Amino acid sequence: METKRVDIPAALLDDLCSRFILHIPSEERDNAIRVCFQIELAHWFYLDFCMQNTPGAPHCGIRDFAKADILLLCQDVQKVLEQWKEYKMGVPTYGAIILDESLENALLVQGYLAKSGWGFPKGKVNEEEAPHDCAVREVLEETGFDIKNRISKDMYIEQKISDQLVRLYIIPGVPKDTKFYPKTRKEIRNIEWFPIEKLPCHRNDMTPKSKLGLAPNRFFMAIPFIRYLYFYL
């Protein structure tokens, strides 16, 4: 997919660079992968705040954003972004399967984009961060719920998805009337309880279509864990 230059106002780019790019340590500045992570943060900030306060600021994805003149990594932005994507896929992801008191319902989150599916709250581990600490942090960011005093380090389901390790800690006994809200902007659109029996166990399982009116592919990130969840229940 070809990237294109987007016409982001120069004043915005100057501000974004001063916030996210210029302070990168000199020894890391030549590491394109490291710079990509900072550009990702700048992109999130641009979408969350700059667009709202700057009429006419164009909406753009990370690929087009990285092509902006001041943020330009190198001539072959496409290649660098692909390398960065591969690197990110190798970073383990941790989160939680939150169950209600009856153990019949699981909490799922939906990404902010219109076509995003439903999955369990999770995210990539930071450098030198313990897996369970990552799970606590990510669940708190995506749902506003603190599982720190509920998590058991030995109670989890772990899968490898597209060569990426994903571990979800099982958190039972959460009241259904708990108020959930994402702490991060424009990352999570919805947070809902779903009856586990209505969720798909494989990609051709049409249970959610008949029970929820949703195609099984809307739960593609949750499917690898549903079947194994029944062993716990």
Derived structural class:
alpha+beta
Low-confidence stretches: none
Distance between the termini: 44 Å
Q: What overall geometry do the principal axes of the alpha carbons give? A: globular
Number of helices: 8
Biggest sheet overview: 4 strands, mixed
The overall average pLDDT, rounded, is 85
In the sheet with the most strands, the strands line up as 4-1-6-5
Describe the structure.
It is a single chain. This protein is an alpha+beta fold. It is 36% helix and 19% strand. It is built from eight helices and seven strands; from the N terminus they run αααααββββαβββαα. The strands form two sheets. It has a four-stranded mixed β-sheet. Strands 3-2-7 form a three-stranded antiparallel β-sheet, with no helix packed on it. A hairpin with a 2-residue loop joins strand 5 (156-161) and strand 6. The chain is globular, with a radius of gyration of 20 Å. The model has no long low-confidence stretch (mean pLDDT 85). Belongs to the Nudix hydrolase family. DCP2 subfamily. Keywords: Cytoplasm, Hydrolase, Manganese, Metal-binding, Nucleus, Phosphoprotein, RNA-binding. InterPro entries: DCP2_BoxA (IPR007722), DCP2_BoxA_sf (IPR036189), Dcp2_NUDIX (IPR044099), NUDIX_hydrolase-like_dom_sf (IPR015797), NUDIX_hydrolase_CS (IPR020084), NUDIX_hydrolase_dom (IPR000086).
